[in-house]
Amino acid sequence: MTTAMMLAELSSRIQTNGSAFSYTYATMGELPAWVVGWNLNLRYGLCSAGLARGMTSYFVGLFAKFGAPLPTWMYSMSFFGAEKCSILSIIFLLVLHLIYIRGTEESKIFNMVFTVLKLLTLLFIIVAALAKFDSDNFSPFVLDEHDGWAGSFYATTLIFYGYTGFDIVTTLTQEAQKPSKNVPLAIKASSLICMCLYALTAFALYGMAPLQNFNAETAMADAFASVGLEKISFVVYFCAFLGITAACFTNLISQPRIL
Fold first, then answer.
1. What's the distance, CA 5 to chain centroid?
2. What are the distances in angstroms from CA 173 to CA 48, 169, 185, 202, 245?
3. Integer Cα distance of 151 and 98 in angstroms
4. Given CA atoms 96, 100, 43, 181 in this order, what sign does their dihedral have?
5. pTM for this one?
6. Strand partners for 3
7. Where are the alpha helices (DSSP H) in the chain?
8. How far apart are the first and last CA of the chain?
9. What is the DSSP letter of 239?
10. pLDDT tens digits for range 200-251
């Protein structure tokens, strides 16, 4: 939240695209900005690659739910010693790039539709999970077989990456109608909304079923299937695919604004 407040303040004072690259350039000069700029491009690129791999996992799972499993070579193959390389992930990234290069208006519509659908289905998942809530799943609160408190603190370092996306708003500053007002508001609002959704989703799902017993890549869907809500697991796969697609797309549209 401190980082969000800092970016909100900088975006209101330096109203230009580029996020931390532009802010560093305006305050510290070319060399630090060059380092920050390439660091941002590396981060957005790696995030997009990881998210594309996640898209593949849920896409394959969705097809399997419909009784049409995809061949293994499409999503898990060895390539120069690397395991689980995915051709589907590359195809997803190419499709998203094609959508982006069609223009800003088309990109905005695509991102808005996917984001709204994602939020609606996520709220549905939270309500459905709360309907099967069992407080006994929170006892014990800390799992000794998963390194106790040390494992909990390690998990928080992973959750941190869920908060790295709100700075993407600052790469699109010049497209806002009132950047000095709208961009800081968007950063603070997105941070608070995401935090609430993360907390509600984690609370509801773990109250429904102990998530550590499932495959990490598809734990949400597996949790619903374990309590007899097999049909809702279809919704989870669909929601996850929508959400990861929207997140991957926003990372991709941010890179050219820094370059």
1. 20
2. 21, 7, 12, 32, 22
3. 41
4. negative
5. 0.72
6. none
7. 2-13, 20-28, 30-65, 87-101, 104-131, 148-159, 179-208, 219-226, 230-258
8. 27
9. H
10. 888 888 888 887 777 776 777 778 888 877 778 777 777 777 778 887 888 7
